[in-house]
Amino acid sequence: MCCQFADEETLATEAETFDCETCAVSRHVDGLDMDNRRAWDLAQGLFVRLIAETDSFGPVLARITSDLDVEQFEDTLRRLTLIYDVLAPLPKRKT
């Protein structure tokens, strides 16, 4: 299990179960370039239950990307979309 996907309680009570030295997620994240790392870090703050349950994704995204110009924002949004599609894929259609 990766600590990046654990809740605060699990981190506090089961910290010994996480080992960043052998974690595949940690290795991949450490290998990201600057743009992908920024998108990953933004995703960790955006793709949480609080944001989803309060329908605040738009305002939060606007706030945390306010330093970006239009081109940078569009690029970041594409990266966030890809991350989200991997982490939360659409259910497969029944045919």
Query: What is the helix content?
Result: 55-70%
What is the count of distinct domains?
1
Task: Give the class from helix and strand content and strand pairing.
Answer: mainly alpha
Shape: globular
Low-confidence stretches: none
Average pLDDT over all residues: 88
Rg calculated over all Cα atoms? 15 Å
Q: What fraction of residues sit in β-strands?
A: under 5%
Annotation field: number of helices: 6
Order of helices and strands: HHHHHH
- What is the rounded distance between the termini? 33 Å
For the largest beta-sheet, the strand count, sense and barrel status come to: none
Total strands: 0
How would you describe this structure to a colleague?
The protein has about 100 residues and is mostly helical. The protein has one domain. Helices cover about 60% and strands about 0% of the residues. The protein is built from six helices and no strands. Helix 3 crosses helix 6. The longest helix has 18 residues. The radius of gyration is 15 Å and the shape is globular. The protein starts with 7 loop residues before the first helix and ends in an 8-residue tail after the last helix. About 0% of the residues are buried. The model has no long low-confidence stretch (mean pLDDT about 90).
